[in-house]
Amino acid sequence: MYKEEVILKNKTGLHARPASLFVREAAKFSSDIKVIKDNKEYNAKSIMGILSMGAGKGDAITIQADGSDAEEAIESLVKLINDKFNEKE
User: Is residue 77 a contact partner of residue 22, using CB atoms and an 8 Å limit?
Assistant: First the structure.
């Protein structure tokens, strides 16, 4: 199992477009991927789960993956977040 904590840096956090990009990226991997915020787990491949998390700019989330491509999945999702979902500032 791999996990990494990351801070949301984009303007809107994990809402609407960024949440859709996040879920789409997570779906590319076969590993079981969870997002943990405030000690609650959310399915990273579920748009409703990610939106219900209510994660905004500055929030810390932990991405946890378990499976054959877990490390690659974590690296890819953390990169997406650190690149601010390719949003223009």
Answer: yes
φ, ψ of residue 73 to 5 degrees: the values are -60, -45
User: To which CATH superfamily is domain 2-84 assigned?
Assistant: HPr-like (3.30.1340.10)
How far apart are alpha carbons 1 and 87 in whole angstroms?
30
Q: Strand, coil or helix: what is 51?
A: helix
At 32-60, the pLDDT tens digits run 999 999 999 999 999 999 999 999 999 99
Q: Assess whether 77 carries a catalytic annotation.
A: no
Specify the amino acid at residue 49: G
Catalytic residue among 15, 42, 65, 73: 15
Contact in structure between 13 and 57 (CB atoms under 8 Å) = yes
Q: Where are the domains positioned within the chain?
A: 2-84
* pLDDT one-digit tens code per residue, 27-38: 999 999 999 999
